[in-house]
Amino acid sequence: MQQAWKRSLEILRDRIEAQDYENFISCLHPVAARDRNLLIEAPNRLAIDLITQRYLNLIEEVLSQTVGWPVRVLLQPPGAVQQELFPLSVPVRPPADLSRKRPSSLIPKYTFANFVVGASNQFAHAASKAVANQPGDHYNPLFIYGGVGLGKTHLVNAIGHQILDKYLERRVLYLSSESFMNELINALRRDRMDEFKNRFRRIDVLILDDVQFLAGRERTQEEFFHTFNSLYEGHRQIVLTSDKFPKEIPDLEERLRNRFEWGLIADIQPPDMETRVAILQKKAEVERIELPHDVALFLAANIDSNVRELEGSLTRLGAFASLNKCEITVNFARQVLQNILREKDATITIESIQKVVCEFFHIRPADLRSKKRSRSIAVPRQVAMYLCRRYTQASFPVIGDRFGGRDHSTVIHATQVVDQRAKQDPTLRATIERLERMLECRG
Ligand code: ADP
Ligand code: MG
């Protein structure tokens, strides 16, 4: 990416006025790349706003041409991640501020100030900030996907809050896809479709949570399609979340899937150890729970599935400590949470899957990453991809990357093929079961 960026700079130099190039473009530098997104650091907010208005489209166009696939650029101020990863204090919104705010469907406590940024959610966070700062301008729709309890609902509510803070007059509507469907059903039943349509088409920002819920609901999809189009054409911001990548949502009309992919797609991965500790500390401060560092480490080491569980364990611990009027120690935590804390079993990673599959099929890990397409390699490769999807939280693009830089569509295809064949082919099914047992024993 660094090289692509260098080459793009040369092209941009010819296409942007010298003064602007010197002031705003030459000082940019990429800090991270993920899937098809490039995170670029700009010197300050002013520069970010200006570049977004004048040059973002051009930068994306040039970069995309240089690398040969569509690239989305996210601009962020310097050090945004590290600063927020270990916050010194928790900025709690003063009550006066809340009362000044107009009532909205947003969940009050889910703000950017309460969101901890780490490597696992850095892109989704940067994308959300960008959308919150300039709703409707770029990245439309913003599609955030990731596993359960990883902070999707929190992030998209934060977008809504920030838009309301910044643009007092904007109408922001947050709702779950399920509510959308229920409101539609009610409107149909009471013959109030005009009202329904008007309501959704009058808003400036629509945040629809958990769109995977639309799977198989044709009537709701159709209505949402029209809502989407009318908002999109009016340059209104649309924000969507899902527990799946658009291509992976079953029974979704092609035209909707297609639209979900128009804007920016950002994933949230499970948080790493440091981020888990930072989340616990922030939550402890907000809830005024005295949480010693060693206990935070203990919890973070033992609960790595999702943030909701992590928070739940802390709340429980806080409640027990105050009931028993005692301090929170590692031993106390172990007792209170014994049901929740499974002994941390060796985790299954892409590497461990590749290793087990290679042993089983007598091939080398390099073969899995190679371009070889003979059956003796292609089948194990597909099976390995399938297992990665099942046993790790890695996204399709990440898996593709670890299998010799393959495209995410290849991984999606592989998982579908294996899934299908396993249903018909008992030998393949047995093979997969063997591999699963090997994985579960060994991690
Ligand atoms: P999802 O919608 O992805 O299932 P939620 O947004 O409901 O997840 O998050 C679950 C809980 O974890 C919420 O209480 C949320 O505030 C918290 N949470 C998740 N990620 C973070 C984070 N990065 N920083 C702070 N809290 C987080
Ligand atoms: Mg949610």
Give a concise summary.
The protein is an alpha/beta fold and 443 residues long. Helix content is 57%, strand content 9%.
Explain this structure.
With 443 residues, the protein is an alpha/beta fold. Helix content is 57%, strand content 9%. The protein has 22 helices and 8 strands. The chain has helices at residues 2-15, 18-25, 45-54, 56-67, 80-85, 95-100, 122-133, 152-166, 177-189, 193-201, 218-233, 254-260, 273-286, 293-302, 307-323, 330-336, 350-361, 365-369, 375-391, 396-402, 408-424, 426-442; strands spanning 29-34, 37-41, 72-76, 142-146, 172-176, 205-209, 237-242, 264-268. α11 links the parallel β6 (205-209) and β7. α7 (122-133) runs parallel beside α8, α13 (273-286) crosses α14 and α13 (273-286) crosses α15 (307-323). The structure holds adenosine-5'-diphosphate and magnesium ion.
For the terminal residues, how far apart are their CA atoms?
Answer: 33 Å
Average pLDDT metric:
88
Shape: globular
Helix content: 55-70%
What's the main sheet like? 5 strands, parallel
Please count the beta strands (DSSP E, at least 2 residues each): 8
How is the largest sheet built, in terms of strand order?
Answer: 5-6-7-4-8
Helical run tally: 22
The hetero molecules present are:
adenosine-5'-diphosphate, magnesium ion
Beta-strand percentage range: 5-15%
Compressed to H and E, one letter per element, the order equals HHEEHHEHHHEHEHHEHEHEHHHHHHHHHH
Radius of gyration: 24 Å
Model regions low in confidence, pLDDT < 50 over at least 5 residues: 82-100
Helix/strand-derived category reads: alpha/beta
